[in-house]
Specification:
46% helix; globular
Amino acid sequence: MMTTNNSPFYKKAFPEIKKKNQGKFTRWVKKNMPGKSTCAAASIIMKAKKSKYSSEVRSMANYANNFGCKK
């Protein structure tokens, strides 16, 4: 028997990144945090004070943490 999830928080599809933004966070990490992996940089950014990084960088790091860095 197959069950379906009717929760409004359940998403079946992976959130898409616009073509122009693909690789943007990885490029930012290579430029601003050389030697760090994308996932390590995302963790550092999310743990830091909000004022240290721009809201755009924080949102990219949050996306990376939520959808790219989970095993």
